[in-house]
UniProtKB/TrEMBL annotation:
Pfam families, per database record: AA_kinase
Function: Catalyzes the transfer of a phosphate group to glutamate to form L-glutamate 5-phosphate.
Protein origin, superkingdom: Bacteria
Keyword Zinc belongs to the record: no
Predominant location: cytoplasm
Catalytic activities: L-glutamate + ATP = L-glutamyl 5-phosphate + ADP
Compartment(s): Cytoplasm
Designated name of the protein: Glutamate 5-kinase
Pathway assigned in UniProt: Amino-acid biosynthesis; L-proline biosynthesis; L-glutamate 5-semialdehyde from L-glutamate: step 1/2
Family to which the UniProt record says this protein belongs: Belongs to the glutamate 5-kinase family.
CDD domains: AAK_G5K_ProB (cd04242)
E.C. code: 2.7.2.11
GO molecular function list: ATP binding; glutamate 5-kinase activity
Amino acid sequence: MKSRIVVKVGTSTLTSENGKIDLRNIEHLVRVLSDIMAKGVEVVLVTSAAITVGYEKMGLPARPKELNLTQAAAAVGQCELMHIYDKLFNEYGRVAAQILLDEEDMCCEKRRQNLLRTFLTLLEHGIIPIVNENDSVSYQEIESADKLFGDNDTLSAHVALLCGADKLILLSDIDGFYEQDPRENQNAELIQQVSCIDEHIKKLAGGSGTARGTGGMITKIHAAELVTPYGCEMFIVNGAYPNYIYSILEGVSVGTYFKTTKEIQTIK
């Protein structure tokens, strides 16, 4: 059986401080993903950055607060993102497909099954599904407290469960999960392995990591809570080094590894 992974890449990895696409980072990521696909690994990519790329391209000075402008920026940015992904994957001989999701796609069983069939068909034909929140129409995912996703860490966890992925790899702007915020304490220690997500672990997680992203370490912990009980391993690694994906697939320790509940029960 082929290995199947979901890779989530955040806004801070895909863009520079001014909101423009970081072409060097995204090209490196595409090259690594294309290479591991050629080796037989099935890959789903969950991407952020549509709103950030969109408002920069629209000439707005900062991320808009108004819902209509935010949704417009998402529409503009998603088009730009997919244009870049499609061009780069084509250069490495891979075909990319776009899938935009909202809450109803996961909550409605009929739509969920149709979505699963689409994912499986794309993977069967060696095509990489590129997934993002459908922010241009789904207002709940932008501003509502009553939401299923709300960030792409959580979205990627739901996608991993839907697709039956073996591994969920979150590409962050830091090296992994730390005991303290490494931006505030340079001596903060990296936690290399998490076997149990308890209240102590949750307290260690802070808020949003950067001004450009909507996630943070707490959303990654929530993602781990979702996938690890179902046999899906999760990893947090620095997105500036896409080669770490090779290390994960080869069993080399990098970043922070969240063990699955099933594996823990086996050890006991």
